[in-house]
UniProtKB/TrEMBL annotation:
Pfam families according to UniProt: Fic (PF02661), HTH_3 (PF01381)
Domain of life of the native organism: Bacteria
Protein name: Fic family protein
All copies of domain HTH cro/C1-type, residue ranges: 5-59
SUPFAM superfamilies found in the cross-reference section: Fic-like, lambda repressor-like DNA-binding domains
Keywords: ATP-binding, Coiled coil, Nucleotide-binding
Site (Important for autoinhibition of adenylyltransferase activity): E145
Organism: Flavobacterium potami
Classification via PROSITE patterns: FIDO, HTH_CROC1
Keyword Hydrolase: no
Annotated Fido domain residues: 195-334
Stored InterPro entries: Cro/C1-type_HTH, Fido, Fido-like_dom_sf, Fido_containing, Lambda_DNA-bd_dom_sf
Active-site residues from the entry: H274
Stretches of the chain forming a coiled coil according to its record: 97-124
Length: 349
């Protein structure tokens, strides 16, 4: 930047004294700016850009570059720190640009009101209620993925240890595994509102345990296509970086967004990355509900019937291909509102 300032001043035919007078900056400081022994402030950069007719962006980039290099120098962690800083700046910008529609703001306010009402009736809560709702969640989440066990059969497999005639071993394992995964995220609830790679891989490991053991808790090593969707997940070589950015985004935004929006975002982002060969949907929904439960919200249970499943997939498709998450946010918010209303009705009947 120092040579840029000096060259621009000389091209304008100005002496350092004359530039100092025009800018209202001490002449000695102008000389130090040009020699690189002193850094101008942001306001001074703006003034010099205008007076010397230097492109503001060019000058600001040069100024920030020198400022960064001055601060971090050649520290051994400099490049890694810059990468993390780049991600934080990028994702902070994403959050600042997130504009909620009137419809979404309205339903979030309704959710906040229902959450307050639920909290005021917590003394009537019981283990039996939670157990029944968790069973329904396992049934519906598996039904979305094509599992044909009924709610009663799911109960018999999980709570009575029975084998259902005509149903595959995979369907039995999907029920048992999902219920164990719910138990695991309930353990994670007691941690601070954190989420890391180990947690996600552990959840996925439980989902696929005994079904595809070689892929349980491991990122896929092959490219995949999502049946019925035009979205193409990232190549396997990109998964580690994509997942690192996923957790960075969470750390940056976990205290900035409404819990329902944060949970929906983490669901959509994970299923869009599609890091696993199978079990992405169930894992993403469990992550979403972990975030909700950590903040005292009930499980957002997406029904597995045709109408709800199609609405769910269509809103995801729009988010993935058109980068418009409004429909998906509204869909998840509506499911959470329904869960709150039902929970309150159970506690107050």
């Amino acid at each position: 930047m120092k040579s840029l300032l000096k060259n621009a001043r000389e091209q304008k035919g100005l002496k350092t004294r004359e530039l100092a007078q025009l800018a209202g900056i001490d002449q000695a400081l102008i000389s130090k700016f040009e020699s690189g022994t002193r850094k101008p402030t942001k306001d001074q950069v703006t003034k010099l850009s205008q007076l010397l007719e230097i492109d503001y962006e060019t000058l600001m980039v040069g100024w920030l570059k020198e400022k960064i290099l001055y601060e971090i120098g050649d520290d051994e962690f400099a490049l890694k720190a810059l990468k993390v800083a780049e991600d934080e700046i990028k994702y902070n910008k994403t959050v600042s640009n997130l504009k909620l529609s009137t419809s979404l703001e309205k339903i979030l306010k309704e959710i906040d009101s229902l959450k307050e009402k639920l909290d005021s009736h917590r003394q009537f809560d019981s283990f039996k209620i939670k157990q029944a709702l968790e069973l329904e969640y396992t049934f519906e989440s598996n039904r979305i993925e094509g599992n044909t066990l009924t709610l009663r059969e799911t109960d018999m497999v999980i709570n009575e240890g029975l084998t259902i005639s005509g149903k595959s071993m995979r369907e039995h394992l999907e029920a048992i595994n999902h219920q164990e995964a719910i138990g695991f995220i309930k353990e994670l609830m007691n941690k601070s509102n954190s989420l890391n790679e180990r947690d996600v891989l552990s959840i996925h490991n439980l989902i696929l345990r005994g079904i595809i053991p070689e892929d349980a808790g491991r990122y896929r090593k092959v490219q995949v296509m999502i049946q019925g969707s035009s979205h193409m997940p990232p190549q396997p070589l990109m998964l580690q970086q994509e997942m690192e950015e996923y957790f960075i985004w969470y750390e940056i935004n976990k205290n900035k967004l409404h819990t329902v929006i944060l949970a929906a975002e983490m669901h959509e982002r994970l299923v869009t990355i599609h890091p696993f060969i199978d079990g992405n949907g169930r894992t993403s929904r469990l992550i979403m509900n972990l975030i909700l439960m950590q903040k005292g919200y009930p499980i957002a249970n997406i029904k597995g019937d045709y109408e709800n499943r199609m609405q769910y997939y269509q809103s995801l498709e729009i988010a993935q291909t058109k980068k418009d998450k409004e429909d998906f946010f509204l869909f998840i918010a509506q499911r959470e509102k329904e869960s709150l209303e039902r929970y309150i009705s159970i506690l107050t009947q």
